[in-house]
Amino acid sequence: MRPMAAAARARVRLRGGPKAELASPQPASNGVIRVLCTDLELSDGLLPTHLPDKHQALKLLVRLHGEPLGYLELPPGPIRDEQLLPLLEAEVGRRVQEHLAEDVQSSPSTVRDAIGAPHCGRDDQDTTSVTVVLCTRDRAQLVRGCLQNLAKLEHKSLDFVVVDNAPSSDDTQKVFDETVGDDDRFRYVREPLPGLSRARNTGLAHATGDVVAFTDDDVTVDSMWILGLLRGFRRGEEIGCVTGMVATASIEGPAEAFFDSRVTWASSCTPRVYRRKDPTAGPLHPWAAGQFGTGANFAFRTKVLRELGGFDECLGAGSYTKGGEDLDIFVRALLADEAIAYEPFALVWHTHRTDVSQLEDQMFAYGMGLGAYLTKHLLVKESAADMLVRLPIAVRHMRGVLNRPWQQDDNGTDDMRFLRRAELQGLARGPLAYLKARRHEAAVRSDNPGRSLTSR
């Protein structure tokens, strides 16, 4: 939910929906409303009736048989059916009709028809083998919860590779042994050289499934995550990559609120397929790679990812460039004529950084990764020609992002604009960082002649 201004609003208006006479949320002392983020599964037959006292608002991801249909944003206080149902109908009524028509051939349908509606279960019939790769570095306590959640996933052919990247201790291995050591679906692998791309390439080398899926240690995967990824691949034989929805797990302060307002893959509930030539994807396509998804939630056909050469080890967290490896692999897939499906049914919940200074570092890293990824492709003659033609559009786009309002105080100033400046500063330093990373990787290859490292 985008943070609300300090002045309380008398009514709530949903996107395109009716007004509801509900109590207005009061902001916390920092001017940000504390939002409870959760999901509402209509087929369960239960509607929310109240909020915990510590939250001032509610952000509901409305789902039907696991499929995300849209968001409903509500203030605190008791919620009666006669209030909630019209709001749900206005927000997700059309999607409910589409889903029920496809699932149980029921039409016309309303939200009320969806409450408690049975599911045909066609997604459960896909038996494609899947390997999930989890890369982590010195975050043992995060890994414990992540492994516990992954272990609950059910699929007929599923295994997991946990890559411990350049660990400074045995803590992660101990947590692995304690949590899933007796589950033969899980394998523990160490990657001695630091870098997320290296760790992912190590996971790819150990993958046995027809599909290899990647997630992060700071997300909670939904129970239907694997089914969602496989649904994405079924959208076409040409699809080599599927990205999923990364929903916000909580909004407790300004850092989480800013990040939630910034990213599209945290809110879009509409599936779509991207191809190399896609006039509907915008004037910067395919170089605006962030629109396809994010590294916290994606999967490839294993054969396709190996043919692409895996991840560029000059990019990514733990390298000089701090990021950009996911942007790069998405674009390389498109340039190789592999389609990318965005599938919101492949859902994970992400816990954003709560500390503003840490978020500033993250935004700087995002900017640097973006600058490095763009530099890499500008150094390729064929890509450079296409990118330079679009440079004026890119500059206008960047200005629009920097000037976009977020949260305004009583003086009308954007008090989080410094985060956008940090991202821009990182972007400016990305090219030099990429060149430095290439020199470093050349030295690594020289020192490790038996290791397959390439600047892909």
Number of strands: 14
Please outline the major beta sheet: 9 strands, mixed
Strand content: 15-25%
How much helix, percentage-wise, in residues?
Answer: 25-40%
Coarse structural class:
alpha/beta
Q: Distance between the terminal alpha carbons, to the nearest Å?
A: 38 Å
Poorly predicted runs of 5 or more residues = 1-27, 407-413
Number of helices: 13
Integer-rounded radius of gyration: 22 Å
| Mean model confidence by pLDDT | 84
Overall, the morphology is: globular
Description of the molecule:
This protein is an alpha/beta fold. It has 13 helices and 14 strands. The strands form 3 sheets. Strands 6, 7, 8, 9, 10, 11, 12, 13 and 14 form a 9-stranded mixed beta sheet that branches. A 3-stranded mixed beta sheet has the order 3-4-5, covered by helices on one side. Strands 1-2 form a two-stranded antiparallel sheet. A hairpin with a 2-residue loop joins strand 4 (57-64) and strand 5 (67-74). Helix 3 packs parallel to helix 4.
